[in-house]
Amino acid sequence: xxxxxxxxxxxxxxxxxxxxxxxxxxxxxxxxxxxxxxxxxxxxxxxxxxxxxxxxxxxxxxxxxxxxxxxxxxxxxxxxxxxxxxxxxxxxxxxxxxxxxxxxxxxxxxxxxxxxxxxxxxxxxxxxxxxxxxxxxxxxxxxxxxxxxxxxxxxxxxxxxxxxxxxxx
Length: 169
Ligand code: RP5
Description:
169 residues; alpha/beta; five-stranded parallel β-sheet; 5 strands; globular; binds 5-O-phosphono-beta-D-ribofuranose; isomerase
């Protein structure tokens, strides 16, 4: 879609997930960011299997130029909350549905944060919205990006009206 948000193409959004098995869901966040030409990085960071990496990633993200972190995990989904506890960047949490419990376990693990450490939790499997939310956060200080997000909303509106017209014959 147009030029990258920043000429340097240094990643502004970190898309992280607890396992490579989460990619089937999390790729939608990456696609949404790509659609808005937002430079981002993708990394597997596990709260339980690579705890030191989690702390390092969270603590260093801002200094590396990351502005928003999107974190997806399934089951005992501690990654988004733990990242939020070691960074002041906004963290968007994506509950990844696993074979059991339909993702309710992931949702509740991510959404029930204690007061003081916020995670913006999207719906179960809602990685696309996580990407779009990150775009909106960046769009606060990037008018050109804000305009493209408005244009995207108008496209969605047009599609609905088109379907409506077809329905009516
Ligand atoms: C979580 O455990 C990951 O986010 C993933 O959703 C889940 C299962 O991981 P794998 O066993 O597939 O690597 O930490």
